Amino acid sequence: MCVGLSARVVKVNDDGTALVDATGARRAVSAQLLDDLEPGDYVMVHAGSAIARITDDDEAETDQLLEEYL
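The chain above was modelled as a monomer; its predicted structure follows.
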């Protein structure tokens, strides 16, 4: 099973990386798989790469499921 984390894009860099915030933890990830990524977008992050753009509703549902699980 693979697990991805939802995160909000804080900054997009010219070198193909993005700074993302996942529940307060900020990290740099590869953004090369997604075109036209902008600050404020939500993405699914897996293995250090932003692999999909997700909606605000997806983000809220993911947060709720994680809270219930923990």
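The chain has one domain: 5-69.
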